[in-house]
User: Fold this.
Amino acid sequence: MSGDPAQPRLHMSGIVKRFPGTLACDATELSVRPGEVHCLLGENGAGKSTLMKILAGSYQPDGGEIRLDGQPVTLTSPQAGIAAGIAVIYQELDLIPDLTVAQNLLLGHAPATGPFVRKRRRLELARAAVDRVGGEFPLTAAVRDLPIADQQLTAIAKALTGDARIIVMDEPSATLGENDLAKVFEVIRSLAAEGRSIVYISHRMDEVMEIGDRATVLRDGGTVGVYDIAETGPERLVAAMIGESRELVRPVEGAPPEGEPLLEIDSVRVPGLIDIAGIEVRPGEIVGLAGLGGAGRTTLLKTLFGVSGGAVSARLGGTPLRVRTPAAAVKAGLALVPESRKEQGLMLGLSVGRNTAVTALGRPPWLAPRRLGRRLGAPVLADLGVKCATPDQPVGELSGGNQQKVVLAKWVTRGGVRVLLLDEPTRGLDVGAKADLYRQVRRLADDGVAVLLASSELTELTANADRIWVLHEGRNVACFDPRTAAENTIAHTVITGVTP
Assistant:
């Protein structure tokens, strides 16, 4: 693949992207050369995903310019991105599980005569792409039946069938073993040798040092530096990611709760995902869970709540905790505010009142009288400061902050909550809504509830948690007191898994 090495294959300059209450990209810069493996680094929330979605055409920037091989382009849709030679391989692979490998590879551009797909030609093109990435799996196999490593190779091969000149790989190692990753690295090197440009996103410094040529570091939506990896140590990259000037975190008010733990997690194991042990939460205590994407925070909370299967050895109030289903977890006094409030926490077509009272009604909410939902939920909605026109308003019409309050309200309405599990409770909320939510969580803790809080926002954890456990690659590796620990020390541990 041709390309002038003196001219960037990709140049994104002054990229600005705003969301309500958030400046996700703040004049962000990214320049990638032909034949280069360019690592894109940054903490959670630094702006990496937003920048790549702009490159893919999924988001439209509010400002800035994108040039490909020196020519300005406007990418108005994912189809426009693909047509421009840009392929993004997301961590959750963009493959259709029930289709075959060949069908996935040529989906949308299969060779055809009139309305009929030329299946033999499709197999020939698919075989060439799969051979190119070293795949040895059958083209007629359904993608869901392939090992995850072969699914990853299928996603790379799919990018080649579209003749991609820029290939973005988002955390490709998250689901790969060491041998499988070595095979993917071989493919990446050969693609770069052809002149293709690879943007490699990873939090793992050992991978970055092995595969990368240069690295761009983002922090708080902006570009803080571009580094030649051969001349830069991992410690310098980590320092750029977290900021070397962070001060000691502001301590939470009051002394940490004392006494016997309410929730004692001896061990929670899900093969291949998490192996966590020794976490305790006292009544009135907020224990934070920090970690990168894929570190295991969500899996831990879902397993404790009976959503995901796993081996759990835990005690609640000294009694063995046995929860194989969410219903059993609720009966035991656990409550979960899930990461995706719209998909897992609310019934968007039903009213605010009925959503608030859903856990207390003891029947499907659409079968309960509307006035009953209003009566049960009204006091809690008022106490939590939920802003709605009327309790009969569909919950889907509320702002994100008010929707999240309704998710919390349904557990308060039911009563009997002993342990509150919060998974990214402030995602997508503005600053004011975040403050309101954390005030309500602290009030519940003050009433004796034990809170386990997972968040990608380390600043929020240090401001609101009594203790912070760091999870790294499925294990809890260190516990910090935010009253005394420096935030950059915690951030360093989040990224590397090692306390400096």
User: Anything to note?
Assistant: The longest strand covers residues 22-32. The mean pLDDT is 84. Residues 10-242 form a domain with the Rossmann fold fold (CATH 3.40.50.300). The chain has 17 helices and 23 strands.
